Each structure stands twice: as structure tokens, then as C-alpha cells.
Amino acid sequence: MAARATVVYHPDLLSLDFGEGHPLRSDRYSDFLSLFSKLGLDADPRFEKAGCQAASHDDLLLAHSPEYVLEVGKVALRRGSLSIDTPISPEIVQGSMLAVGGALEAGRRVASCESRHVACFGGFHHAGPDYGGGFCVFNDVAILARALVRRHGKRRVMVIDTDAHAGDGTEDVLAQDPSVLVVSMHQDPTTIFPGKCFAQDIGLGEGRGFTANIPLPLMSELDEYQRCFQEIVLPLAREFGPEVVIRNGGSDPHYADELTQLGLSVADFKWLGMMVREAAQGAPLVDMYGSGYNPRVLPSCWMALLSGTSGMNLHVPRMDEGRRPEIAVTPGLATQRDFEILGTIAEVKKNLKPYWKCFQ
Ligand SMILES: [Zn+2]
């Protein structure tokens, strides 16, 4: 039986570690793979594992300016920082190039029909054409989308960014490109990093209409996500008809995440994955795992996502997720979230209406 899903991984990815006390440690990858092994998936014929090699300088230029790549090299040598939260070193740059290499290997596999579903590790969506930051050095999501278009001849690639933070770097790289539809659903940027990517930001020039930002109210739960998928993401996906879907984002929309304020439970991540699978409509899927700032829930959330995106209904062990923060509401009245999400959905549709029949 041919494997139904491939997991691309290289052990040197562990060098992509920002160090003691930083929220992004590389043990997330090994923690997830330990759970993967513990569940017997290493020996499961539905899965295969594959290695990868580091990206080349030319690969990086698919999304970044030569000046930025040069600057990264210089800053790494003196162990400086790209931003206040993103210190870099030659090891971190090597790890970042390996993450890009993993994404490109995933892209090569889906483009050559070797695999229909590839999970890889990365999703560094805050790195833009000439800037890094937000724990991101090189934007593996945007580089992969560009490679699928420019090297593999794809005409319609869809990025579905499910990370709690907006995919600002990805959007800046791809803003003018109508062959890549970028949809990002994220915590209201007025309340969190990067403070960009609002409903009115819909792409530029020829790419206008091919970026959709869905800012989610604080503590949004499954209900809000469901409305967004039903009313925006799925209609867009049906009309666009992607040849490949790239999903990125990890566990940071979980309610116990330490850096964000969204409201998903572990079980909800499976539903999120299933919706992304539905949006793909049978097209191959590259599934990029990276974020999450509560190591206790991270492996289970990633596994629940994989269960949904792969359609394999994997067993996700029950765990203590902690208590969901309570939000006070007046009985009988709609919550603030209800008002906000309805307003957001209406605004996104209104802005995209000139470009999409599904919103007319
Ligand atoms: Zn994030």
C-alpha cells in the first residue's frame, strides 16, 4: 500500500533554537515526533518519512531580496538580532535554511505526484521580502508558494494560514501575485503582533483580491472559526480551485497558549484540519507545523491538526488542557464576539466582492 502521507524532517532542524527562556525552542519538533512514535505511526504503513537538505541561496531569493539575505549572513556572524525577539546565529540561519529546504522538498513531492499529503516543520510567516522578525528568518511558506508557481508550473496555489498571528511576511511577498491566494485567519491584529493584516488588506496591483485577512475577536472559539470557513474560506476555495494547498500554523490558537488570546481546544484543531482538507477539494496539501507557546498542549494540537488535514482520524490522546478562560456575558444577549465576527465577515466579503462571484 502506498503511503498516504509523508513527514519531511531532518534532525539538524533542532539547531533552529532561539535558546533558554525564548518562546521558540526546537524541542517542539522532537516532542511532536516522540508522540508520533508513541502512537505507533512510525510503523504505520499509511505514513512514510523523508529527509531534506538545506535551501540554497537561489531558493531564498524566491521570496527575499539579495540585500536581506546578505544582511542576515552578516548579523548571524556577529550573533546580533533581526528584531528584539529574533536573535540569530550561524546555527539558527542553518536551521532556517533547513526549514525552507523541508518546505521545498514537500513541494517537489506534491508537484511530482509522489505524495498527496506532506507534513513538514516551519511556517515562518513573519519574514518579508527584506525583513525578518517575530522568530522568523526566512519565509518558507512564501518560498514554497513561489517555487510551486515558478519552478513547478502551478497556476493556482492557495495558502491557508491558521496561525494565531497574521501571516504578514507571506502577504508582503505575495501581495501582487494572482496565482497565489493567501487566506489568513488570526487574532485581531490591534491586540497582538504583528499589528498588521486587517480586513481591508486584500493584495496589490494584479494581486488585488488574492489576499484575504480574517481578524478574529479575542478568545474566538470553534463557532467563530466555523463561520469564517463556511462564509469565506470554503467559498473562496471552491471558486479559486487550488492545484495545491499550503496550510501553515501550529498550536498557538489554543486557549492555553501563553502568547495569544484565542479559544480553540485540542479537539477543535482536528476540525480545523478537516476544514482545510475540505478547502483543498482533493488537491494535494503541504501542511507546515511550527507555532505554539505552551509545550504541554503543543504535540496534541499538532497531532489533532494532522488527524484532520490527513483525513486519517488519528487517535489523539486525551490530556489535561487546563481550564478555558471564562468570558462574562449578560444572559440573553449576544456576546461581544458575536457582533465582532459578524461585522468582520461582512467587511471581508464587501472588500472582496469585486473580485469573486461567490460574494456577489
Ligand atoms: Zn503564531
CATH superfamily: Histone deacetylase domain
How many individual β-strands? 10
List low-pLDDT spans: none
Helix content: 25-40%
Distance between the termini: 45 Å
Oligomeric state of the chains in view: single chain
CATH architecture identity? 3-Layer(aba) Sandwich
Question: What number is the mean pLDDT?
Answer: 95
Q: Could you spell the SSE succession in H and E letters?
A: EHEHHEEHEHEHEEHEHEHH
| CATH class bucket | Alpha Beta
Largest sheet: 8 strands, parallel
Q: Tell me, briefly, the overall form.
A: globular
Bound molecules: zinc ion
Output the strand order for the largest sheet. 2-1-5-10-9-6-7-8
Structurally, the number of domains stands at 1
Structural class: alpha/beta
- Number of DSSP helical runs: 10
Strand content: 5-15%
Under CATH, the topology can be stated as Arginase, Chain A
Task: Set out the fold topology.
Elements lengths: L4 E4 L18 H12 L8 E4 L6 H4 L5 H12 L3 E3 L2 E2 L2 H22 L5 E5 L18 H11 L6 E5 L6 H7 L5 E8 L23 E6 L5 H19 L3 E5 L17 H15 L4 E5 L8 H13 L25 H17 L8
Parallel strand pairs: 1-2, 1-5, 5-10, 6-7, 6-9, 7-8, 9-10
Antiparallel strand pairs: 3-4
Helix pairs in contact: 1-9, 3-4, 4-5, 7-8, 7-10, 8-9
The structure holds zinc ion (ZN).
Zinc ion binds next to loops.
